[in-house]
Design brief:
This protein is α/β, with parallel strands linked by helices. Helices cover 25% and strands 15% of the residues.
Length: 354
């Protein structure tokens, strides 16, 4: 969940070749929730683990013990070596019969959350980790610096540019020990989308094959201005939207997903996001899909704003802009999570085509 600074006067954009006209954003039809789905598993009382903060739940302990198996899918907590620091992550592995992976999905959470955002505690059918692994794609849901199981070791986190370098080191370390197929596909939410774009712009080794980003625009909406990076003071509606978009138990379970904002994210020394996006976007050379929820309130999401945002990605071979009906900003925690994740994985398939 992003920090909404006021942009300074825009610097003139550098000259570039004329981009292919960007089509108007497509509207993704809402998929009604099946009736009835099995009840959500209640979230047990929190209990501390040896390396974890006190909000760790029994469900989390199941992941840590490797017991969260589903149709051959195994989800476990791992640690990634990123040089000067280590990152915690959830790693979802498909059934061994799936064979070698064609790519690895890297899920990057937003502001004030951590990796379990992509493994919904309210209803198992909404988990990206389980769904992707069932379809044969390993998923690495990474805790950004200052977040998750090892966040207490570096509580101040890192500025965005340093996070990009850290993520690349962590993925390189992962690739030395695990098969990655064609490379890494970044699926990112909100502030995590900022990191994904930065990492793609910095990807000199060509390890990334595509980006799928939700909840990230390039100009803040008027309603979002003035909220601090801590997201206090009435930002509930911006983050969630109507309550009926989420399964029962979502808001109780969400307490275990939330985290404080590290200092270096709250006070990043880099340029404000609108200016930084203009600097990063022309350097992204992989396919990009941008998804905006029907009830997205953090960003300007009119057709003109989204067409202009897509046009900045001038070096990308393919840019798609979609709208997800019946969804709020936190798409991966609502009923729209499953159709959104399926479309993201379909975009991964397109990125894997020769």
């Amino acid at each position: 969940m992003p920090r909404p600074p006021e942009p300074p006067p825009a610097a003139p954009a550098p000259p570039r070749a004329a981009a292919t006209p960007v089509p108007a954003p497509s509207r993704v039809p809402a998929t009604p929730a099946p009736a009835p789905l099995r009840p959500a598993t209640p979230v047990p009382a929190a209990r501390p683990g040896p390396e974890a903060p006190a909000d760790r739940t029994a469900a989390d302990q199941g992941v840590a013990d490797g017991t969260a198996a589903d149709q051959g899918v195994r989800i476990e907590e791992i640690t990634l070596d990123a040089g000067a620091l280590q990152l915690s992550a959830l790693y979802a592995r498909p059934h061994p019969a799936a064979g070698e992976p064609r790519a690895v999905v890297v899920a990057v959470h937003g502001l004030g959350m951590h990796a379990r955002y992509f493994h919904s505690p309210a209803h198992p059918d909404l988990s990206l980790l389980t769904l992707a692994a069932r379809l044969g794609h390993p998923v690495l849901a990474v805790d950004r610096p200052g977040h998750g199981r090892l966040g207490h070791r570096h509580p101040d986190g890192q500025p965005l540019a340093e996070q990009s370098a850290t993520l690349h080191r962590a993925l390189a370390a992962f690739a030395r020990e695990h098969p990655t197929g064609a490379g890494f596909f970044l699926l990112a939410h909100s502030y995590g989308g900022k990191l994904a774009l930065h990492a793609a712009a910095d990807d000199t080794a060509g390890t990334l094959i595509g980006l799928d980003i939700s909840g990230l625009g390039h100009h803040y909406a008027p309603a979002a201005r003035g909220f601090p990076a801590t997201l206090g003071g009435g930002a509930w509606g911006l983050n969630w939207g109507p309550m009926h978009l989420y399964p029962p138990g979502t808001f109780q379970g969400a307490r275990a997903l939330m985290a404080r904002t590290p200092r270096h994210e709250e006070h990043d020394p880099g340029p404000p996001w609108p200016l930084r996006y203009r600097q990063l976007a022309p350097r992204v050379r992989v396919p990009v899909r941008l998804t905006f929820a029907e009830h997205e309130q953090w960003w300007h999401t009119d057709d003109a704003a989204l067409t202009a945002m897509a046009a900045r990605l001038s070096a990308s071979p393919r840019v798609r802009v979609d709208r997800q009906d019946a969804a709020g900003h936190n798409i991966s925690l609502g009923w729209a999570a499953r159709p959104y994740h399926l479309r993201a994985l379909a975009f991964l398939e397109e990125c894997l085509r020769p």
